[in-house]
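Q: Please design a sequence for this.
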């Protein structure tokens, strides 16, 4: 059984990696083959220069993703069947012999630190080479590393209690430890949704109340019309790090707030901002956030139930390169290996997300004006250098939002 798992894992890792490479190369090739002509639906609003910039920007990012995918696959193989996790485990066993929970937490943190160190040069290259070249980066190296340290500390402060709780429950709560952990994990996620906007997000960005009174009144009228109550309207200083623009809802329950990037407010007029907000309200009205939370709870329930069974199977450890089974190693193996087994399900998740976007667009078209949403989308595609010609198969695997041409053609039926 162990050898079968090893064979399946290696086969899926190879298939997943080569699929990522193949899809990425298709994407770049498709984009470059359509680089010389703006799609007819956008010809009057997006210049050839802007279209070519988006093509080259997307191609550069995709090539980096291909390289990162290869590096991640090699690292995963080295950590598992290559014996890397066993080396980390043995090192901590020599230093900490009494508390398995503390040792387990250190082993898991060490493995994720290795993964983070691998990702660091790719993140740095994207920010200071690709984004810099195309005029999007506003960060300094000092800000980049400061954010990295803050993210790490916040992740550690929030993640460590959950990690210790998980290891403690695995060790002392009997056969149904996974059910108790699922309850703890679910409560933790709901708590994070509530406290993130007020206590965590301000650690990385400045949030100021929307000061434009005419726009504020207009937005508040739309919120009232749509039955949405929020903690407030805020502007985020996104321009300090990037020139990309966006808007989003964040929080849960009474902590919900509407956030606009300052870059978005600089680019769109009042009609367009209202249409973008109406789209976000569409997600609220269609209960997309609640549905995703429920889906997350269901998936985590099934995943933890599966882990509860795998933890007691010797072949699970042996098949993934572990000769000394332990609770913490079961958890770590599951976290590292499960994406390989789930990769081919990505198109289903992406399709569900795009369906949500179509529903939100339709809601916006019925509660604002579709033509203003189209105008806003065209500006955002142009200013964010989002390609107008993605490879259809690559888009089916990865894109949470519909391709620009399809999205705008569906909105066109509301503009007549």
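A: Design:
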């Amino acid at each position: 059984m162990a050898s079968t798992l090893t064979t399946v894992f290696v086969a899926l890792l190879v298939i997943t990696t080569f699929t990522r490479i193949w899809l990425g190369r298709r994407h770049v090739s498709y984009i470059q083959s359509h680089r010389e002509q703006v799609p007819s639906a956008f010809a009057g609003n997006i210049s050839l220069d802007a279209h070519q910039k988006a093509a080259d920007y997307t191609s550069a990012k995709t090539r980096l993703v291909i390289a990162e995918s290869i590096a991640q696959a090699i690292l995963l193989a080295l950590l598992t069947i290559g014996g890397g996790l066993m080396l980390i485990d043995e090192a901590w066993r020599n230093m900490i012999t009494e508390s398995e929970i503390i040792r387990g937490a250190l082993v898991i943190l060490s493995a994720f630190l290795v993964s983070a160190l691998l990702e660091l040069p790719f993140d740095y290259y994207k920010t200071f080479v690709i984004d810099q070249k195309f005029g999007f980066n506003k960060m300094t190296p000092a800000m980049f590393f400061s954010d990295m340290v803050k993210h790490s500390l916040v992740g550690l402060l929030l993640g460590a209690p959950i990690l210790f709780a998980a290891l403690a429950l695995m060790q002392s709560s009997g056969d149904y430890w996974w059910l108790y952990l699922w309850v703890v994990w679910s409560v933790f996620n709901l708590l994070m949704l509530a406290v993130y906007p007020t206590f965590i997000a301000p650690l990385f960005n400045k949030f100021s109340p929307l000061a434009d009174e005419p726009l504020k009144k207009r937005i508040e009228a739309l919120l009232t019309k749509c039955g949405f109550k929020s903690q407030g309207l805020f502007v985020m200083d996104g321009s300090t790090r990037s020139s990309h623009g966006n808007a989003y809802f964040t929080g849960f329950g009474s902590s919900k707030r509407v956030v606009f990037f300052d870059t978005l407010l600089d680019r769109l007029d009042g009609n367009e901002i209202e249409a973008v907000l109406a789209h976000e309200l569409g997600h609220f009205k269609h209960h997309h956030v609640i549905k995703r939370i429920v889906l997350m709870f269901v998936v985590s329930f099934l995943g933890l139930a599966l882990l509860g069974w795998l933890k007691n199977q010797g072949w699970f450890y042996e098949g993934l390169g572990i000769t000394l089974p332990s609770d913490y190693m079961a958890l770590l193996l599951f976290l590292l290996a499960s994406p390989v087994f789930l990769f081919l399900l990505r198109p289903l998740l992406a399709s569900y997300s795009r369906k949500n976007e179509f529903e939100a667009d339709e809601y916006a078209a019925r509660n604002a004006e579709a033509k203003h949403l189209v105008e806003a989308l065209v500006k955002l595609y142009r200013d964010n250098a989002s390609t107008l010609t993605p490879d259809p198969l690559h888009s089916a695997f990865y894109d949470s939002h519909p391709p620009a041409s399809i999205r705008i053609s569906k909105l066109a039926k509301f503009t007549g």
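Q: Thanks. Anything notable?
A: Strands lie at 207-209, 233-236, 247-250, 257-261. The two ends are 62 Å apart (CA to CA).
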